[in-house]
Amino acid sequence: MPLDYPAPFLELARELRRLPGVGPRSAERIALWLLSNKDARPAALSAALASAPAAVHPCRRCGFFATGDLCEICAQPSRSGREICVVEHATDILPLERTGTFGGVYHALGGRLAPLDHIGPDQLRIEPLVARVREEAPCEIILALSADVEGEATTNYLREILAPLGVPLTRIAHGLPAGGGLEHADQITLQRALSGRRPAGERQPG
Ligand SMILES: [Zn+2]
Predict the structure, then answer these.
(1) What secondary structure, in 3-state letters, does 74-96 show?
(2) Three-state SS for 97?
(3) What is the pLDDT of residues 65-81, one digit of tens each?
(4) Which domains does the chain have, with CATH numbers?
(5) What are phi and psi of 150, to 5 degrees?
């Protein structure tokens, strides 16, 4: 058999390779670093890996990351009864929050309608959104989905479902790059998109 690294090393590299964006070369490099660099803290890394998945889960109300029943945003009494900003993913919430222009609450759908990938309304947190709107009676619902075809389809679908509930419905203005998610937009673009929102019944210009 040709010479190779010892089995525990290969096992470590194999696990690292399963991480997103890590190819075989990087996996080997990281494994080497973990085993030989004096700044590596494999025990601390291992402890964090073991504890985080059990400690962090989606907020019962909005889907953002939480350690308790509700996330830090939903737990703030001053935010209740205000706007609900609907986003695709929980990871869209922090960029919007960092703009500092929004004082309401969020609702992450867990994706968007994508019939080709068999993602329909039942696969998204749309029912819980309708239930929330009925229960919380927000002053406005802001649809902040991406500007591509699937995002548009999801916005249109939500508009039809939510309009009968009688809450003012707006959508963010899209200075956002077509095909780009909120996650990657810069802060100024997001700020403008939020403050330039308009009634969700209107067509996007252009
Ligand atoms: Zn929450």
Answers:
(1) CCCHHHCCCCEEEECCHHHHHHH
(2) helix
(3) 999 999 999 999 998 77
(4) 7-54 (1.10.8.420), 58-199 (3.40.1360.10)
(5) -70, -35
Residue 166 CA to residue 73 CA, distance in Å, equals 25
- From the CA of 202, how far away is ligand 1's center (Å)? 29
Q: Ligand 1 center to residue 107 CA distance, Å?
A: 8
Token pair, residue 136, equals: 């919380």
Q: What is the mean pLDDT of the chain?
A: 89
Give the tokens for residue 130: 């309708």
> Is pLDDT above 60 for 150?
yes
Distance 123 CA to ligand 1 centre (A): 19
* Nearest partner of 173 among 197, 149, 156, 191, judged by Cα: 197
Query: In angstroms, how far is CA 67 from the centroid of its own chain?
Result: 16
Rounded to the nearest whole angstrom, what is the distance from the C-alpha of residue 120 to the centroid of ligand 1?
Answer: 23
Q: How far is the CA of 69 from the centre of ligand 1 (A)?
A: 8
